[in-house]
Amino acid sequence: MSGQLIVALDLDSRAEAEALIDRLGDAVDFYKIGYQLFYGGDGLALGKMLIAAGKKVFFDLKLLDIDNTIEKGVAAFARTGASMLTIHAYPKTMRVAAKAAEGSGLTVLGVTVLTSMDDADVAEAGYGRDAAGLVALRAQQARDAGIGGLVASAHEAEMIRTIVGDKLAIVTPGIRPAGSALGDQKRVMGPRAALDAGATHLVVGRPITAAPDPVEAARAILAEMAGGHRLA
């Protein structure tokens, strides 16, 4: 179950991240490194250190560029030994990324609709679909492109699973255990409910990283994940 929990290291510095990682110890096996730490806190080097120490790393960088740049970038991340990498879920980008990651242990994840966005935000961005409709379209395109999975709200996990089948990973941020504040998230769900809906991995940040006792917070989430959920 611990391999399904991904702790988001949304921190300013490598020192802060290492202190949290040391504190969490064996309670957490999987970490996400995003913009904040990657660009401002030596996140690439930290990720490589974690991989060398036997941890799993998810680089959440949402790549989008011309084909050659995506191909070279994804291949470079594959060589680090990272477990997951995000790209924007545009069809052409997903096809190129899938090819670049082929034969490696890297799971390329297409980002569908951010969990901080609702239907009004999607409409403002110029899409002629609601959030669920856009997620469904991206899921079909991801399946056809052959990438390893998708990032989406847990509210869309069940729908996505019917589209992509059992093989693709569904990684869900916006996870809020009982009693947690929503923060800037809009489409959220609890840990157990998200897994039951079809998610394979849960990304949790502030409910753990900002908790008075991060270890206890992580263990409580793992316990909530385990309660009543049958592992595949």
From TrEMBL:
InterPro entries: Aldolase_TIM (IPR013785), OMPdecase (IPR014732), OMPdecase_AS (IPR018089), OMPdecase_bac (IPR047596), OMPdeCOase_dom (IPR001754), RibuloseP-bd_barrel (IPR011060). Residues 4-221 form the Orotidine 5'-phosphate decarboxylase domain. It is an enzyme of class 4 (lyase). GO terms for cellular component: cytosol. GO terms for biological process: 'de novo' pyrimidine nucleobase biosynthetic process; 'de novo' UMP biosynthetic process. Catalyzes the decarboxylation of orotidine 5'-monophosphate (OMP) to uridine 5'-monophosphate (UMP). This is Orotidine 5'-phosphate decarboxylase. It comes from Arsenicitalea aurantiaca. The lineage of its organism: Bacteria, Pseudomonadati, Pseudomonadota, Alphaproteobacteria, Hyphomicrobiales. The gene is pyrF.
